Amino acid sequence: MINKTQKLNPKLFDLQIEQEAIRDGFGRGLVTAGETNEQVVALCADLTESTRIEAFAKKFPDRFIQVGVAEQNLVTVASGLATMGKIPFAASYAMFSPGRNWEQIRTTICYNNVPVKIVGAHAGVSVGPDGGTHQAIEDMALMRVLPRMTVVVPADSLEAEKATLALADSGGPAYIRLARNKSAVITTEASPFELGRAEVLFDSDEPAALIIACGQMVYFSLLAAKKLEAEGVAVSVINLHTIKPLDKATVIKYARQAGAVVTVEEHQVAGGMGGAVAEMLAAEAPVPVEFLGIQDQFGQSGEPGELLEHYSLGVKDIIMAVKKVIERKNV
Amino acid sequence: METLTDEKIELLTETANNIRQSIIGSLLEARSGHTAGPLGMSDIFTALYFHILRHDPARPDWPDRDRLVLSNGHICPVYYATLAHAGYFPVAELKTLRRFGSRLQGHPHREFLPYLETSSGPLGSGLSQACGMALADRMDHGLTSDRYIYALLSDGELEEGNTWEAVMLAGKYGLSNLITIIDRNGIQIDGFTKDIMPLEPLAEKFDSFNWHVVEIDGHNFEEIVAAVGEAQAVFGRPTVIIAHTIPGRGVKAFERQYEWHGKPPSEEEGKKALAELRTLNGKIKSEND
């Protein structure tokens, strides 16, 4: 059942649930962060409107740097700003940043230990018609291998807004992953959010499996949980919005309770959120795990919905994976 | 900047010679590291830390200090030796270069040695970081700021695309608080820059990106100081000082040879080099003198 303390959207299972792009929440959060703290600055590599950094750029033109189509410069200039006390948010598409400038992020931001926030918009296959060149499905892997890097994948626009504000205060390097398409707003203003804390959104006294998801896959996981509940299969669902640092205690507790785990992410299975969970569980609480994500392939053009279905990231795929992992548990 | 007197030039010459000796000494202990670049940049580092920069070794975190970004981190033996001679840490510590637990990492790491403004090694990203610092200074103090950001680049790393992204940006924002010095020594690991990837016409390249360009003899203190003075006076444009240097400068056996880019002297070569530097102590002048 829904965890009431999470104060999720009352229309969660309503077809008319509000839809808003996750990137829109980031844009709002950045303006608020800029109002609260004058050290917050922003940079963009010629994608001001689509990364939603535009509102900040208009409101604080003197604190906005347009670097042009130059992603290596984007993050290294941000590093220089940060060494002078600024808190830079550097935005582009995830495919180009961190896709193109990984070493610069590693050396000048993480190794250098400065609080630059990398904003990777248009991540995942849900980018849609632009096709495989523009669908970053490796970015979480690239970012989570870096020491000191915080990696955040908000589940909806409101969570993206809260995450942006939290990152402005986090004091270290961070990566925030945003999606392009409109997606269900599953949380509310009142929903709790804390960097590094896994949120248990759906709970059960005796769960047969635990679903761990991030990004818009959290919504699909909740839909799957509801359907499974109706079929008499009890599950719990964790929104793992912070991939790194991983909330080990919560994940271990619920994985042990359920005895089986399904991970769901819009990312390559190799190196992604599921990988992070499995690396930890293998050492601390080994249970069977099923991984839903992109299986060593590239994306392609299409509408977000049909692409997610094609890459086995739909509600029915989650239900199948849950049933499969429960069977494995019983072997 | 104070006036550069003949007495000061003599003092700088002596200091640069001592720094060169320290470089050789630390490379001999480390048994790995780069020789040509550090020796070639000794005069410029000396001029910066002993005449040009606004800095205070007693207050390394002084907010109003000038900033210096060493982009080509591999020449750090000269950076470390200069900081030690300037009083940031004991000269004896130079012997720990590249050792486990040393603050003097093989390439500069700010966390190990907090007197550095940034960590560097991978080429091509120092100018961007200096641009970020210059932009931050603009945001905080506007056009009236009298603080300068110095970026030191090698010529070889001008082959990196990242560098030119920064060159465009500095031109766009007219970062006159940014002063870039290029160590134009003509060599890189694999050979002479003209063979690996020709950079000329270099001055014209920067000029066409809306920079102010000065070319100097990078071993002549008067020219170094005059060029920086000119750069500080230029308004609305960033300045690049193309400093022509001799790689390995000060030790005849190492001079002008790209083979000395990335290796340390042997015990014997080092001894000879130290003897050569000591006998010339106080007598080294620019090629043009």
- The CATH topology label of the largest domain in chain A is Rossmann fold
**How many angstroms does the end-to-end distance of chain B come to?**
24 Å
Largest sheet of chain B: 5 strands, parallel
Helix and strand run of chain B: HHHEHHEHEEEHHEHEH
Q: Any idea what the radius of gyration of chain A is?
A: 19 Å
Structural class of chain B: alpha/beta
How would you state the average pLDDT of chain B, rounded? 95
Strand order of the largest sheet of chain A: 3-2-4-5-7-6-12
- Give the chain pair forming the largest contact, with residue counts: A-B, 28 and 32 residues
Which band does the percent of strand residues of chain A land in?
A: 15-25%
Number of strands of chain A: 14
- Assess the beta-strand content of chain B as a share of residues: 5-15%
CATH superfamily of chain B: Thiamin diphosphate (ThDP)-binding fold, Pyr/PP domains
What would you give as the CATH superfamily of the largest domain in chain A? Thiamin diphosphate (ThDP)-binding fold, Pyr/PP domains
Instruction: Note the total helix count of chain A.
Output: 11
Describe this structure in words.
The complex is a heterodimer of chains A (331) and B (289). Chain A is built from eleven helices and 14 strands. With 331 residues, chain A is of the alpha/beta class. Chain A folds into two domains: 4-11 and 193-330, Rossmann fold (3-Layer(aba) Sandwich), CATH 3.40.50; 19-184, Thiamin diphosphate (ThDP)-binding fold, Pyr/PP domains (Rossmann fold). The relative contact order of chain A is 0.14. Chain B has 289 residues and is an alpha/beta fold. Chain B has ten helices and seven strands. In chain B, the strands form two sheets. A five-stranded parallel β-sheet of chain B has the order 1-2-3-7-6, sandwiched between helices. Chain B has a two-stranded antiparallel sheet with strand order 4-5. Chain B is globular and about 50 Å long. The mean pLDDT of chain B is 95. Chain A binds chain B through residues 41, 62-63, 65, 67-68, 70, 72-73, 76-86, 88, 103-104, 107-108, 111-113, and chain B through 67, 69, 109-111, 117-122, 124-125, 128-137, 139-140, 161-162, 165-166, 168-169, 173. Chain B: It holds the Pfam family Transketolase_N. Chain B: Keywords: Thiamine pyrophosphate. Chain B: Residues 14-272 form the Transketolase N-terminal domain. Chain B: Its cofactor is thiamine diphosphate.
